Amino acid sequence: IKTIGVLTSGGDAPGMNAAIRAVVRVGISAGLKVKGIRRGYAGLLEEDIIDMTAESVSDIIQRGGTIIYTARCNEFKTPEGQQKGADILRKHNIDGLVVIGGDGSFQGAKKLAGLGINTVALPGTIDLDITCTDYTIGFDTAVNTAMEAIDKVRDTSTSHERCSIIEVMGRNAGYIALWCGIANGAEEVLITERYDHNEQAIIDNILQKKKVGKRHHIIVNAEGIGDSFGMAKRIEAATGVETRATVIGHIQRGGSPTCKDRVYASIMGAKAVDLLTEGKSNRVIGYRGGEFVDYDIDEALSMTKDVDQYVYETARRLSR
Ligand code: ADP
């Protein structure tokens, strides 16, 4: 392998820049040329490819987002698009590719591997919803951002003796909500993996907590639960407790990455280059059991994971 490329794809996540920087610097010190493919697979198909130097990744480790931009690309889901992508990579002499993104992006990396491009994927998503790993680039920053925001809402909620519903990101995965539920001492955590849509139980709980003198009531909703504003209206009508909904939104996607996200993303980026120089392909890097590991992409995509029941039960027990 002489030349490698790096791209970010799907949703952006804080720490992606640290991973890009590691790929570029470790690649260059291994004697490789490194190219940046901008705007994910969309940019690949448009040949939006730039040379990366050690200096080109200066001063980015502390920045959120991704300096090479990210995108979604439907054309790349077609065999023709994938063949075109592989041809463009060959034209630019790129024989190894690091893809930073989520499950969808891994599918693309797998297709390129099948077309003879050596690929290694890194888990980049704030949602933690990648089955082969206990850590994803961006989760730690996002969950800390959400936690700090909820602390602020809690202050005002307590002062006014209100019920607050706070919606955090996570359409299909409730990890941010669950962690905040514990970290912020929420009375309820509603996640798609467990919520049974029993709103009456929530209402009864608020009335009961009010009786014992609790001055606030925090409900953390994962985005996938939806309708936080409607829920606030219904709860207020049923309990007589003033109830407000706050959707934290994209604030959770940005910001300076935490130390953990910078360090883990850097190690994963370095490991991706090491795997490519060893001649490996169709691999995804994960963090499991306290170690950085790698799996075959097909094996990784066939794994399943669920929120830890003990963690979920603990969140519930702590809210009593
Ligand atoms: P994420 O990578 O965060 O899961 P997406 O699911 O949107 O985000 O996937 C990002 C991009 O990866 C898509 O826009 C598409 O270009 C590519 N991709 C997704 N699924 C496939 C697939 N089955 N085959 C090839 N490429 C895919």
From TrEMBL:
Annotated Mg(2+) binding sites: D103
- The answer on whether this UniProt entry bears the keyword Transmembrane helix reads no
**Active-site positions on this chain:** D127
Enzymatic reactions = beta-D-fructose 6-phosphate + ATP = beta-D-fructose 1,6-bisphosphate + ADP + H(+)
A molecular function annotated in GO for this UniProt entry is:
monosaccharide binding
Residues in Phosphofructokinase domain copies:
4-276
This protein's cofactor list reads: Mg(2+)
**EC numbers:** 2.7.1.11
User: Does the keyword ATP-binding feature in the UniProt annotation?
Assistant: yes
User: What are the binding positions for substrate in this chain?
Assistant: T125, I126, D127, R162, M169, G170, R171, E223, R244, H250, I251, Q252, R253
Chain residues that bind ADP: R21, A22, V23, V24, R25, R154, G185, A186, E187, K211, K214, R215, H216
| Regulation of protein activity | Allosterically activated by ADP and other diphosphonucleosides, and allosterically inhibited by phosphoenolpyruvate.
**Location(s) in or outside the cell:** Cytoplasm
Which Gene3D superfamilies has this protein been placed in? 3.40.50.450, Phosphofructokinase domain
> Pathway, according to UniProt?
Carbohydrate degradation; glycolysis; D-glyceraldehyde 3-phosphate and glycerone phosphate from D-glucose: step 3/4
- InterPro entries referenced in this protein's UniProt entry, alphabetically: ATP_PFK (IPR022953), ATP_PFK_prok-type (IPR012003), PFKA_ATP_prok (IPR012828), Phosphofructokinase_CS (IPR015912), Phosphofructokinase_dom (IPR000023), PKF_sf (IPR035966)
Q: Which UniProt keywords apply?
A: Allosteric enzyme, ATP-binding, Cytoplasm, Glycolysis, Kinase, Magnesium, Metal-binding, Nucleotide-binding, Transferase
Task: Give a GO cellular-component term.
Answer: 6-phosphofructokinase complex
What is the uppermost EC class here? transferase
Q: Name one GO biological process term.
A: canonical glycolysis
Role this protein plays = Catalyzes the phosphorylation of D-fructose 6-phosphate to fructose 1,6-bisphosphate by ATP, the first committing step of glycolysis.
* Family, similarity comment: Belongs to the phosphofructokinase type A (PFKA) family. ATP-dependent PFK group I subfamily. Prokaryotic clade 'B1' sub-subfamily.
Q: Which NCBIfam families match?
A: PFKA_ATP (TIGR02482), PRK03202.1 (NF002872)
- Recorded protein name is ATP-dependent 6-phosphofructokinase
Source organism = Mobilisporobacter senegalensis
Q: Which gene encodes it?
A: pfkA
